[in-house]
Write a structure and sequence with these properties.
With 256 residues, this protein is of the alpha/beta class. The protein has two domains: 199 residues, 2-enoyl-CoA Hydratase, Chain A, domain 1; 47 residues, Orthogonal Bundle (Lyase 2-enoyl-coa Hydratase, Chain  A, domain 2), CATH 1.10.12. Helices cover 49% and strands 16% of the residues. The strands form two sheets. A six-stranded mixed sheet has the order 1-2-3-4-6-9, with helices on both faces. A hairpin with a 2-residue loop joins strand 1 and strand 2. Helix 1 packs parallel to helix 3 and helix 4 runs parallel beside helix 5. The longest helix is centred in the middle third of the chain and has 20 residues. It is globular. The mean pLDDT is 97.
């Protein structure tokens, strides 16, 4: 395990923590590699029912490591190959989160900016401190946050997402909650406990049903209506035929 990412497991909940507060948990190449390796292990771990993605320090993540990015410019190709590799690696991590069989809850404090906002918005659920700010503010440096836009536009109305991308303005936690970006708000001193409580509530459900459900939910997003129902219909049949589901329905009908 890299020192950049830590993992602790308890009661079916894996807490994955970005552990580079000195860089505001920048998504450098080593950080992305550590996250990818961690998620690979979690995907194969049947003991994990829910994942919390957290961060040390005053910020969740300020985005990519700009010093690392600037160092690419001295390459013979101006950095094109290494820029492409960085953004491809980042995209792979985001897709790995969506593909995880377990729900992932982002526990966000301070600032989630640019690729850090992308990381939070890629998670299935977000619990944020009331003092958090979300932004895709690369445009303030002359860089449109095209890759963070993928995650943000799947969580926020396209027009509002585009406004943030073109103005560089930040969303307060309260406004992000109003717009549906954030699921739950917490006072700063309650953030860890409130996130843990949500994770525990989900972890107490049938893990197989949750895994089937997350897979179907992710698969149907963006599909035409008829195709979405085909995906969802196959998933619910798979779910309802499980013995544990049959027993759960019988217990409900029998008032057990």
């Amino acid at each position: 395990m890299s020192d950049l990412v830590t993992r602790t497991d308890a009661d079916g909940i894996a807490t994955v923590t970005l552990a580079s507060p000195g860089t505001l948990n920048a998504l450098s190449t080593p950080m992305l590699m550590a996250l990818a390796a961690t998620f690979d292990r979690i995907a194969a771990d049947d003991n994990v029912r829910v994942v919390i993605l957290a961060a040390e320090g005053k910020a969740f993540s300020a985005g990519h490591d700009l010093k690392e990015m600037q160092s690419y410019r001295g390459d013979p190709d101006g950095g094109r190959a290494r820029f492409q590799a960085l953004f491809d690696r980042c995209a792979a991590v985001m897709q790995a989160i969506a593909a995880l069989p377990q729900p992932v809850i982002a526990r966000v404090q301070g600032v989630a900016a640019a690729a850090g906002c992308q990381l939070a918005c890629t998670c299935d659920l977000i619990v944020a401190s009331e003092t958090t700010r979300f932004g895709v503010n690369g445009i303030n440096l002359g860089l449109f946050c095209s890759t963070p836009a993928v995650a943000l536009s799947r969580r926020l109305a396209p027009g509002k997402a585009f406004e943030l991308l073109t103005t560089g303005n930040f969303l307060s936690a309260a406004r992000a909650h109003e717009l549906g970006v954030v699921n739950r708000l917490s006072p700063p001193d309650r953030l860890e406990a409130d996130t843990r409580a949500l994770a525990a509530q989900i972890a107490a459900k049938d893990p197989a049903a949750i895994r089937i459900g997350k897979r179907a939910f992710q698969a149907q997003l963006g599909l035409p209506l008829d195709q979405a129902y085909q995906v969802a219909g196959a998933a619910i049949v798979e779910n309802v035929l499980r013995p544990d589901t049959a027993e759960g329905i019988a217990a409900f009908l029998d008032r057990r």
